[in-house]
Amino acid sequence: MSNPPPDDVEAELKPTATPGYNPGGSKSPEELAALDQEDESLARWKASLGIVPGTSATPAGPKLHVLTLELASSTLPSGKTISMDINNPQEMAAIKKNPIVIKEGVEYNVRMNFRVSGSIIPGVRYIQLVKRSGIKVDKFEKMLGSYGPRDEQYTVDFEPDDSPSGIIARTGTYNVVSRVVDDDGEIHANWEWQFKIGKEWA
To answer: In a designed cystine with 148, which of 48, 50, 68, 172 is the match (CB 3.0 to 4.6 A)?
Structure first.
């Protein structure tokens, strides 16, 4: 999706460590299905992840495939969303040349669509590092949870946020590095994109 970020950016993209938290070793769906079978609420949760007795992982192992990242806002014309297909090199190159324009001072939220195959992926996190003129202006990190393999895509809506406003916010291009990583340290997606703040959506 993109070249690896430089070392200084790589260090800033590391997930926040939770003191005392140990994710432990990964287990296959079959091993997880056999644990605590008498706990009904846990069994329901495992079933929601596709973990049921007789389940086994595919030889390919766990995979999380990000499909699109979207920006949604009630202020967008006709309730549309701005969507980027991070797997389309031409589309990502076009965004680099003509950055996404986000209207200043409005509420919006980010939505990620992805698929999971192979096995359960524990502790999926989305990390976003934003720089302008090479200076860090924001880092956002969201724990998305654990996901099991299934044919249908997952859609996760992030909490609403407000876009910045003012002449300073509207100056220059914001460069973003986005990453999806799990508790085992596996990087499932890593891509770069650009946006600007404008008086209106473009």
So the answer is: 50
Task: Give the CATH number, domain containing residue 54.
Answer: 2.70.50.30
Q: How far apart are CA 110 and CA 9, in angstroms?
A: 22
31: containing domain: 7-12+26-198
In a domain, 154, yes or no: yes
Structurally, the chain folds into a number of domains equal to 1
Per-residue pLDDT of the chain (202 residues; tens, 9 = 90+): 556 666 677 878 877 765 555 555 555 556 666 656 676 776 666 666 666 655 554 445 568 999 999 999 999 987 789 999 999 999 999 999 999 999 999 999 999 999 999 888 989 999 999 999 999 999 999 999 999 898 999 999 999 999 999 999 999 999 999 999 999 899 999 999 999 999 999 8
Residues 133/94, Cβ–Cβ less than 8 Å: no
Q: Do the Cβ atoms of 195 and 100 come closer than 8 Å? A: yes
